UniProtKB/TrEMBL annotation, chain B:
TM region(s), chain numbering: 57-76, 83-100, 106-127, 136-154, 183-206, 237-257, 315-334
Entry's localization field: Cell membrane
Bilayer topology: Multi-pass membrane protein
Keywords: Cell membrane, Membrane, Transmembrane, Transmembrane helix
Protein name per Swiss-Prot or TrEMBL: ABC transporter permease
Main location per the UniProt record: membrane
Listed GO CC annotations: plasma membrane
Pfam families named among the record's database cross-references: BPD_transp_2
Top-level taxon of origin: Bacteria
Claim: Membrane is one of the keywords in the record: yes
Organism: Longimycelium tulufanense
TrEMBL record, chain C:
Residues covered by region (Disordered): 502-538
Superkingdom of origin: Bacteria
Protein's UniProt keywords contain Repeat: yes
Span of domain ABC transporter: 22-254, 271-516
Organism, as annotated: Longimycelium tulufanense
Name recorded for this polypeptide: Sugar ABC transporter ATPase
Topological relation to the membrane, as annotated: Peripheral membrane protein
GO cellular component: plasma membrane
Pfam families, A to Z: ABC_tran (PF00005)
Intracellular or extracellular location(s): Cell membrane
SMART domains to which the protein is assigned, alphabetical: AAA
PROSITE patterns: ABC_TRANSPORTER_1 (PS00211), ABC_TRANSPORTER_2 (PS50893)
Keywords for the protein's UniProt record, in alphabetical order: ATP-binding, Cell membrane, Membrane, Nucleotide-binding, Repeat, Translocase, Transport
GO MF terms held by the record: ATP binding; ATP hydrolysis activity
Amino acid sequence: MRRMRGVVLAVIALTGAMSLVACAKDAGRRGSVGGQAAACKLADKPELIPGLIATTTATGERIDGSHLRVGLAFDVGGRGDESFNDAAAAGIDRAKEELGITDVREVTASHQESEDVKQSRLRQLAQDGFNPIIAVGFSYADSLEAVAPEFPNVRFALVDATVEGAPNVTPLLFSEEQGSFLVGVAAAYKSRNCHVGFVGGVETPLIQKFEAGFLQGAKAAAPDIRVDVKYLTSAGDFSGFNDPEKATHSTRGLLDRGADVIYQAAGGSGKGVFAAVDDADGAMAIGVDSDQYKQKNLAAYRDVIITSMLKRVDVGVVDFLRAVAKNDLSAMPDVLNLKENGVDYATSGGKLDDIEDVLEAYKSQIIAGNIEVRDRPGA
Amino acid sequence: MGSLRGQLLPPVLAIAFAALLCTITLLISGANPGSALAAMVGQVGEGTTAVDIVNSASVYYLAALAVAIGFQMNLFNIGVEGQYRLAAVVAAVVGGAVALPTGVHAAFIIVVAALVGAAYAAIPAILKVTRNVHEVISTIMLNAIAAGIIAFMIRDDMFGVLRGNNISTAEIASSGWVPGVPLGGYGTLFGLAFLAVAVGIGYWVLMNRTRFGFELRAAGESPTAATAGGVNAKRMILVSMLLSGGVAGLVAMPELLGRDHTYLMTSPAGYGFTGIAIALLGRNHPAGIAFGALLWAFLDKSAVALDNVGVPKEIVTIMQGSIVLSVVVAYAVVRRFELRAEQRRVGQKLGGAEPAAATAGGAS
Amino acid sequence: MTTPTPTGTDAGADPGGGATAVVLSGITKRFPGVVANDNVCLTVRRGEVHALCGENGAGKSTLMKTLYGMQQPDEGTIEINGEQVHFRSPADAIAAGIGMVHQHFMLADNLTVLENVVLGAESAHGIGGRARRRVAELARQTGFDLAPDLLVERLGVADRQRVEILKVLYRGARIVILDEPTAVLVPQEVEDLFASVRAMREQGYTFLFISHKLDEVRAIADSITVIRRGTTVGTADPATVTNRQLAEMMVGTELPSPQTRESVVTDRAVLELRGLTLRAEGDGRELLHDLDLTVRAGEILGIAGVEGNGQTELVETIMGIRRASAGRILLSGKDITRVGTLARREAGIGYVPEDRHRYGLLLTQPLWWNRILGYQTRRPTARRGWLDRAGARQDTERIVRDFDVRTPGIEVAAAALSGGNQQKLIVGRELSGDPVLLIASHPTRGVDVGAQALIWEQIKDARAAGLAVLLISADLDELLGLSDTIKVMLRGRLVAEADPKTVTPEELGAAMTGAAGDRDAKKDGAADHQEPGEGGDR
């Protein structure tokens, strides 16, 4: 028994030493992030096409929406998720201010709830007289397909999906790939190793749009760049959106392989990505959905967040409510693109000041249609 | 089986206790328990909620029966989760790929689902019988593996089809659908709710009226006594696990054939775990499980109603959790009380001091 | 409650015999529905061996648990050495100098004798040299010749018991309760134990000796208190009282006897074992070695042996719970070596297992449901894969009636019955359906005298009707009384055969421990010494 204990101790001691060695090696490698490989050979910067970029969406036109009773059905997480539910919430908050809306009911989906619960949620809002009703997240698509025809006079909006054959459902779609393209360009310009990474929460078609745009953007700016992609979970297992621990480990893996700019589209797991990047010397991160540089609970990682890909669900929500208040939905775009400010990149922190002209140039090229951004990786 | 009182008292106590706990929680959080309760009860009459409750309950019922079959054999089949989901995906893929006449098509899909569930449950069963691997460990692992297989199968380069931002399997042709019972404004009752009822009756008959059920329950209660009574306990483990998996395979069928006609990436998971809770709640009794399933579904739907009146819907989760916990405790307490009462009756019958010492001391 | 018996005839009396060690006055302890102890009075003088007699379930254990502080009496007082005390826990009792040696040993196998003795009482003399000296001193006083550094797992039953006694002495006990200490010992070991007890009595220790074995009680006790149905029915002087008188005090009626009437043994072999061998799974140790055995119709064949010498394995192999490694098992001439338990039962084997709770009953299920166990394929409890619930209920009613199972009904859970009634139910079940062979493993262990008599009676009746019985028992009286033939089992072999009409318990005991040295127990009965650790490999 005593001998056994000795062996165990020895093993512990050995592993301890090995992990010390490992740490030392890691530290060495991370320390030499800048010197190990050369920065990218950049492609020529495209020309800026002037006059295409709208600086502001505010129309100045005063619209009264105080008569509207707005129902808002969040996806899992609801208000306070610091991701796209919060973006929708921000839209409502702005709408309250700008349009004078007062009567809003917010309801939230539960984890792994069944289809009929979603339907009941929407139906109850409609029955209680809310109009318009905004459903956040593509998981409401089938529910709206069933419920919307029952209430032809209620105007619905659906974030991230379309419903065929339901004229009273306005889809609020965003070209995530366009915004991701721009942060891909930024990553390529900022990388010292010519090696960047992408961490997706769950391998769904939606998150693949982020990946595809990022990939294309990085390659456009630096054709030789290496882009590593990692998803936390595969389709059907949504825990990847809420597993910061796993995100940290995966991100470390990317960093250890030499990537030094990491773009995350991982919802609640994003925090873990930032934590791993923050740990590594000289690495940088790119946020998603909201301007994550400004988020309070991410303040600790502020230094490594060079930009965020903005998915302006708030813009979509406000635009939709404005259109409803005017009783004219015809102006609503099919997809909110860069052009409509539906997606964008954040400049908070000033870390992109040196390449802003480049990004603006690419942006104008995309808006002009000279660059077509794909929404499927490898397609 | 114990007395009726012994059967009914624990769940009633448990529900009362859980309700009390939730009332306190609501009061602390500043909400009005009265209006919360009114919203919960009131929702049943509104729209399709009543039918939705029954529909969900039929799904839960199948899941809980699958778990209960394992419980009868003292097997903790946590793997119902993986078994039903894998069965659902395979059935959806197979059902979407074949063309068969109406009726036959649906029956074929149901059989495929049951077989897939049973086959997937066979893995932990065989591991248990041959290598003595505990089924809790193996089924937890197999649940994770099932999630991986499902993700792989619904990839759009495998059997998946892109639907906007969602992915699903190919839609099953209408010949494979099981029509529901339309109840007008109240919604549509799943046709396969009747399958759930039939499985429940079959379960009861099997457990209480057949030699097989006797052997299963005997082996579950006391493997040693069952062995001495000529029951092959290993065979019972295998068969009960296959049966459990087979029923687990049916869990997703009401929704698949009655509403969705396709397996979506966003199709809900977790029915297997809900089934464990309901089987505990219903004490493996088919009627108890039916009650538990209805209660569970009612509470689930209450989340919407509570959210609508601004009461935190998490209260429903608290209630569900505390019901299960207190049911387990209440049964233990009541069972002890019942045994005491029964010994007292025996003691009175004998009119002497004899049994107390003997039974309290157990075997000697 | 019908116990108007006079109690404690000389309770508190006899001041001339020295100071009292223990006086229990008017102890009453109620459990829901029953009174386990009712106005019990007991006086134990200092330095005597006081026997407490009573049949199983009479309330002896309850009384001793009260004295040892494991439960509090509802009424009555306890005096120790003349002072009234209130014990809230065994710790209080130990502090007052009371020690209890339980029937089931509570020893850590992987610790040494010394460690076991000191374990839990480290505060008394530490764990070092002082403790060792104290243990050695106690061992010398008591005459226990135990190597302090030997692992307990290497000790035999008798030595384990000595360790238990050392344990309570080490904790300072002057009053020692011995709960059925001889139940696990063979006759020679009993003698050794009694010698030690007498030696310690001379040194001033007081013993409370619980037993229902009357010969032993009369051999060791200085005075005897008899308890029946929870109350003391009187005291007796062992020098003058006879077994019969004692037994009648205990039972209140005439004593049952296991004596078999005239022999009805036929020449028709029912069970035949041919070279039956069983090896342990894994290490291949031989648990049963080349057994040859024949049980004939109308014959009761008894297997004697210290427990753990292969009796359990023999029974389980015959029942098909274990697979024979070699040899054959024939039932009425048909080879059943390869068939399963159920098929053997269907072929007509009834089985009364040694542990009724683990092997005989489904405790939480009603009696009629238990009736089906082992008969789930046969009438009247089943019909073609379907249970015949009405048939099972009816037949359970019959067993309850014919076997005097005391129960309010057949819907109560088996666990609610007392041990004796559970056993009657099992015997009734196993004698159902006209078996040709009954395997009875300790059929009356832990049951009250009434149930014992009834079970013996039923077995004898069945035997007279041509049943073959293989009887395994640790109760030599039972074996000698019932059997037509006795075989002695030692380390997985049948080492001797004895004629129950002529062999004495001492001779049998010698053969059981291997001290006889040859295959005939009758030749050399006066074995005087046996090795510790002969109790077989457990």
